[in-house]
Amino acid sequence: MVDDEVEEIVTILSLKKESLGGLSVNEWGDFFGGSMAPLAFLWLILGYIQQGNELKQHTDALIQQKNEYTRNIQLLAHISLEQSFSNEASYLNTLDKNKSNYYGGITNARNSSKYHQNKIKNLLEQIQKDSS
């Protein structure tokens, strides 16, 4: 079907090669070329403008992404610093507890030592009483 139509067009053009609607085939080509050139140029300009807009949107998105990354890095640095301070405070609390346990242990040992010394002293006194 399409081939038949193409054949008819080619036949008509070949028969009326010199004049088709008062214009020759060459003049028709010039007419279509001249009338479509401004449309093609307009298409080119619109494509250029559209590409510029897309490039601007892409640049804005990249700038926004860079700002988000910068904000995230600052936030992570802040969190890391807080965690470092928290770990240091926990370590110092542990040292303080250990110090208090250490000194508490020494105090307990001294008290225990005094208790045993008193007990030994009492036993010695009792032995002396019993021997006399």
List the topology elements.
Elements: H1 2-15, H2 25-131
How would you describe this protein?
The chain has a domain at 65-132. Helices cover 92% and strands 0% of the residues. The chain is built from 2 helices and no strands. It has helices at residues 2-15, 25-131. It is rod-shaped.
Distance between the termini: 146 Å
Order of helices and strands: HH
Contiguous uncertain segments of 5+ residues: none
> How much of the sequence is in beta strands?
under 5%
Radius of gyration: 51 Å
Q: What would the keywords be for this entry?
A:
single chain, about 130 residues, mainly alpha, 2 helices, rod-shaped
Give a concise summary.
The protein has helices at 2-15, 25-131. With 132 residues, it is mainly α.
